[in-house]
Design goal:
193 residues; alpha+beta; five-stranded antiparallel beta sheet; 4 helices; globular
Length: 193
């Protein structure tokens, strides 16, 4: 996916440096709505959490209060914003930013990819152990979501990776949550605003 447009979704009233009391529930509801849209339009949208910050011994992991939505066209981005506006409860807590055009050719800065971090299954004990160690060491931020197909709750752990340069590498296709697959990053520009 090559992004051609983007906009920012921001939780209203959230402190810039930390969590407001409603940030996590608003992000969870936003991700649920986005997932239903992205599943109907596979490969058209990807998301970044520009304020993503892994945890450490002295601080808790956090996603921040902003989601940056990237789309393959302005029209695709508008469709997502229209769908979000249809959720009146969510709109009380979420500010939708202006849609801006983007050209990957002119971006010479850093790139990011956001991956869903999954622990390997029990049938792969060596990989599973390494994944659990990495998860515990890095303290990845996560959201608790409910599966639309099974109704079960699950943790959506998010691993944000920075890339100094794409080096002409092709961008992968985002999954139903707008995230990169494990070995196929969706390269998204790190933008100042």
């Amino acid at each position: 996916m090559e992004p051609a447009a983007y906009c920012t979704l921001e939780v209203r009233g959230a402190a810039a440096g930390g969590f407001g009391t409603l940030v996590v529930p608003v992000l969870q509801r936003t991700m649920t709505v986005l997932h239903s849209i992205f599943s109907r339009q596979p490969g058209h949208h990807a998301i970044d959490f520009p304020d993503h910050c892994p945890g450490s011994i002295s601080k808790r992991p956090r996603l921040g209060h902003t989601i940056r939505l990237f789309s393959v066209s302005r029209e695709s981005c508008e469709q997502v914003l229209d769908a979000l506006e249809g959720d009146k409860i969510l709109m009380e807590y979420l500010m939708l930013g202006r849609i801006r055009s983007f050209s990957p050719v002119h971006h010479d800065g850093t790139w990011a990819s956001v991956h869903r971090f999954r622990v390997a299954p029990r049938t792969q004990p060596d990989n599973r152990h390494a994944d659990i160690e990495r998860q515990n060491h890095q303290g990845m931020p996560f959201l608790i979501l409910r599966s639309q197909s099974t109704g079960q709750r699950f943790s959506l752990m998010l691993d944000r990776r920075l890339h100094a340069d794409r080096s002409g590498a092709p961008s992968g296709e985002p999954n139903g949550y707008g995230l990169s697959e494990r070995n196929r990053p969706v390269y998204l520009p790190v933008l100042s605003a």
